[in-house]
Amino acid sequence: MEAPPTGIPIVLEPLVTRVLAPNASAYTYTGTQTHVVGTTDLAIIDPGPAGEAHHAALLAVVAGRPVRAIVITHHHRDHSPGAPRLAAELDAPVVGAAPFALEDDGPRSDASFDHDYAPHRVLAEGDTVAGDGWTLEAIATPGHTSNHLAFALRETKALFSGDHVMGWATSVVSPPDGDMTQYMASLEKLIGRDDRIYYPGHGEAIERPQRLVRGLLGHRKQREGQILRLLRAGIVEIPAMVEKMYVGVDPRLYPAAERSVLAHLVDLERRALVRSHGGGWESVDAA
User: Fold this and answer.
1) Which of 26-30, 81-85, 183-187, 239-243 comes out lowest in average pLDDT?
2) Measured between alpha carbons, how far is 184 from 144 in angstroms, rounded to an integer?
3) What is the Cα–Cα distance from 247 to 241, expressed in whole angstroms?
């Protein structure tokens, strides 16, 4: 697949314009997608990493129109660092996900935290940001991160899903900030909604979102089953599990896979199905 152009505004629907940041990687796919909502006045969702080219591209899209808010889905370095400069130059508040200061206990696989992230207003479930002809409603979707929010555009039933549901791969869930129990619950929550389309932080728009979310839930449950079978077969350490579970996957993604396997194990331990043992793990029914 040919990578789409960066810095070029693409109108997805009358109220939504997408601009791709030039930060493609094994963990960001073609890059972070910033979405600009509105026509006469605007909201900017996830301004992406700090960088001259993307900053200039967003200012060109704004074209002097008032910006009501710079909206952040979560505090990863590929989503929020572009916010402070935009906020200062556009006289717009940064709103959305809560700030977070936890030091991670292992290697990050998607992007490290943006430790400078400091919103002017934290949004919770059901809080809104509005402008001329548009309303964004915060939907709490923790799991990928503890503070992750999606945003529903009420007027068109579009959902900006951030990294919770993406158009190219499953989300990395990396403890201690990432939580598989919360992630699964957030997927179940989305199934109960009637959103028409998802615009993710990475990857193409998702036109049959309910089908994809059900598939993600099924995929995670399959991973659970793989882990339990491997434990019963005596494969008890995470790196060895990843080699068996992720055959054919780019080895550069193994750190991400190891973090997600750990998240599954933590979830299974909460449910009394596994426990840590001697530097590894074991299934409770095999103990």
Assistant:
1) 26-30
2) 10
3) 10
Contact criterion met (CB below 8 Å) for 79 and 32: yes
Spatial distance between the Cα atoms of 152 and 160, rounded to a whole number of angstroms: 6
Q: Of the candidates 32, 113, 49, which has an alpha carbon nearest to the alpha carbon of residue 86?
A: 49
Residue 217 CA, chain-centre distance (Å), reads 16
Tell me, what's the pLDDT at 103? 55
Per the confidence metrics, is the pTM higher than 0.70?
yes
- CA 71 to centroid of chain Cα atoms: 14
pLDDT at 287 over 60: no
Instruction: Give the C-alpha separation, 164 to 204, whole Å.
Output: 14
Q: What is the pLDDT of residue 277?
A: 82
Kindly report whether the peptide bond that precedes residue 81 is cis, defined as omega within 30 degrees of 0.
no
Q: How far apart are the first and last CA of the chain?
A: 47
What DSSP designation does 46 have? -
Structure tokens at 70: 């710079």
Distance CA 59, CA 70 (A): 13
Q: Report CA-CA distances (Å) from 286 to 269, 275, 282.
A: 14, 11, 7
Token representation of residue 161: 């899903």
Angle at 51 between CA 47 and CA 52, to 5 degrees: 110
Give the chain's domains with CATH numbers.
10-208 (3.60.15.10), 218-286 (1.10.10.10)
Q: Give the span between the Cα atoms of 150 and 209, in whole angstroms.
A: 14
Q: How many residues does the chain have?
A: 287
What's residue 246's pLDDT? 93
Q: Which residue reads 């995929």 in tokens?
A: 219
Question: One-letter amino acid identity for 274?
Answer: V
For residue 76, what is the DSSP state?
B
